[in-house]
Structures are given as structure tokens and as C-alpha cells.
């Protein structure tokens, strides 16, 4: 799995922005995000932030992963 939502990106680029397919496929994902106004999007969750959230909101069962 690539991690990118290609159908969603294609809809946004070709339908939302009106890009021709050949123009869309020449863009990098970063260029497309800039065109969509997502340059200020929040960064992905870092390990440090995840650890901070885990300390602030501990699992009620003590963190058991058994399900």
C-alpha cells in the first residue's frame, strides 16, 4: 500500500482544480498539496507527541494489548 489516497488526490486535482490528467501526473504530491492550499497542514504525529499523549491519557486497563 502506497500510503497516498490516489483516488482522492485525483478527484481533488482533476475535478477540484480542473487539471488535465497529463498535468496532474506531472505534479509531485507536495506540489498538488500546495495547489490545494494544504501547505500549512499539520505535521504527522511524532513519537515524542505520541508518548506525551499516552502519558496524559493512559489506557484504563493499564495498557494491555491483549484486547
Concise synopsis of the structure shown:
The chain is mainly alpha-helical. 51% of the residues lie in helices and 0% in strands.
Q: What do you see in this structure?
A:
This protein is mostly helical and 67 residues long. The protein has one domain (6-56). Helix content is 51%, strand content 0%. The protein contains four helices and no strands.
Biggest sheet overview: none
Number of strands: 0
- Computed Rg: 18 Å
- N-to-C CA distance: 26 Å
Count of helices? Answer: 4
Low-pLDDT regions:
none
- The succession of helices and strands, N to C, reads HHHH
List the helices and strands and how they pair.
Layout: H1 6-16, H2 21-26, H3 29-35, H4 47-56
Please describe the structure with a list of short key phrases separated by commas or semicolons.
single chain, 67 residues, mainly alpha
Amino acid at each position: 500500500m502506497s500510503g497516498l489516497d490516489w483516488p482522492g488526490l485525483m478527484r481533488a486535482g482533476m475535478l477540484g482544480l480542473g487539471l488535465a490528467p497529463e498535468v496532474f501526473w506531472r505534479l509531485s504530491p507536495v506540489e498538488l498539496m500546495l495547489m490545494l492550499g494544504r501547505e500549512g497542514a499539520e505535521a504527522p504525529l511524532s513519537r515524542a507527541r505520541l508518548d506525551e499523549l499516552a502519558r496524559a491519557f493512559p489506557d484504563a486497563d493499564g495498557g494491555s494489548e491483549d484486547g
